[in-house]
Design brief:
Layout (H helix, E strand, L loop, with lengths): L2 H14 L1 H11 L36 E2 L12 E7 L6 E2 L13 E8 L2 E10 L5 E8 L6 E3 L5 E5 L7 E4 L2 H8 L35 H6 L3 E2 L3 H5 L9 H14 L23 H12 L27 H7 L17 H12 L10
Parallel strand pairs: 3-10
Antiparallel strand pairs: 1-2, 2-4, 4-5, 5-6, 6-7, 8-9
Helix pairs in contact: 1-2, 2-3, 6-9
């Protein structure tokens, strides 16, 4: 079985059969990290993970830092809040600007809400041994606290405000499927996402809070070290020939780049959608070389056998856009974490493809 077929079968199973998804994720992607003897069990309550002050599930601890990525991931319209906590006296090593190294003891949280109701909070922790482990906490109906979800996840949790009135809590294998397909398991917290040069056209972008940290704040506080000098002199920015292209590439980076990248850890498909903070021109060129006028392997009656992943000025003939529009289990992209398509994101990518040329245009 070639790599592409293995990838397609994993994508199908992840939405159709949870048990099969666990097996295939273990075979095709980095498996969930088991607990070792030097690791304490995951707390049963979110209130015990180090996010909140004692006897509160609304006030975070003083050393917990809020952040807001400029290109958020589409999650069926959920509202999100995000935090990170570094161990006292430690810092992130940014020697590799697209693959930050986080100190053992780093913890991150992402809260998902629908219509004001907190539904789940996802938790990532780097253990003392340097391993990453993942958990999801499910909020009770009263919003008093959240309880550790089973490793297999929860399918179809009733949530009236969520699309279709249901909500899927991911399995831990689902977490690894996305988080361990990139150069670093931490997504949404990097030089490009935290740049002060924020994209005004980014779909679903949130305005950072007054106390949110960005790239400059991390450096100023001594929490980020060894960032190469270009990242210090110039705020990271996606290389693009137009504002629309910048936003479209940012959207693809956030929603697809954690799997479709050149780190060697992603899916076995030759497609590069991740953007580099230090080498934006090179990552833009890699996207063109792997996608624009490049034949895909998608086969349907509506697409020719040699249909391009991105067909310039022809979104109706672009495989990438067709996969993004699909919510069929065998073909949808992204394959996990969403039941409904993103109209704003799709409209942006379609607009970009309509104005696209076969060769990268010179940037202003």
């Amino acid at each position: 079985m070639d790599a592409f077929v293995r990838h397609r079968r994993f994508m199908w199973s992840a939405r159709v059969t949870r048990g099969l998804a666990l097996l295939l994720a273990a075979a095709a992607l980095t498996p969930a990290i088991p607990q070792t003897a030097d690791e304490a069990p995951l707390p049963e309550r979110l209130s015990d993970t180090g996010l909140f002050v004692a006897r509160s599930t609304t006030q975070v601890l003083a050393d917990v830092l809020a952040f807001t990525p400029q290109y958020p991931l589409w999650s069926d319209g959920a509202d999100k809040r995000r935090w990170i906590r570094l161990p006292a006296g430690t810092a992130i090593d940014a020697t590799a600007p697209d693959a930050w190294q986080f100190p053992p003891g780093t913890r991150l949280w992402k809260e998902f809400s629908h219509d004001g109701r907190r539904v789940e909070t996802r938790y990532i922790e780097r253990t003392r041994a340097g391993r990453w482990r993942y958990a999801t906490y499910v909020w009770d109906a009263q919003g008093d606290d959240a309880t550790l979800a089973p490793a297999r996840g929860i399918a179809g949790l009733p949530v009236a405000a969520a699309p279709q009135g249901r909500y899927d809590i991911p399995a831990r294998a689902d977490c690894t499927a996305c988080h361990e397909g990139s150069a670093t398991p931490v997504l949404g917290f990097g030089a490009l996402q935290l740049s002060r040069d924020r994209d005004p056209l980014a779909p679903h972008a949130q305005v950072p809070g007054a106390r949110d940290v960005d790239l400059d704040a991390l450096v100023a506080r001594g929490l980020l070290r060894n960032l190469p000098s270009p990242g210090l002199r110039h705020a990271p920015r996606i290389a693009a020939a137009s504002d629309v292209e910048r936003a479209a590439l940012g959207y693809l980076h956030a929603n697809c780049g954690h799997c479709h990248n050149r780190s060697g850890a992603g899916v076995p498909v030759r497609l590069t959608l991740a953007q580099s903070a230090l080498a934006p021109d090179a990552s833009r060129a890699a996207l063109w070389a792997s996608a624009v006028d490049v034949a895909g392997r998608y086969r349907t009656p509506d697409f020719a056998p040699d249909a391009a992943l991105i067909a310039p000025r022809a979104p109706e003939r672009s495989v990438l856009l067709a996969r993004m529009r699909s919510r069929q289990a065998q073909t949808q992209m992204p394959p996990l974490g969403t039941h409904v398509t993103d109209p704003e994101g799709l409209a942006l990518v379609e607009r970009w493809i309509r104005q696209l040329s076969s060769t990268p245009e010179e940037m202003p």
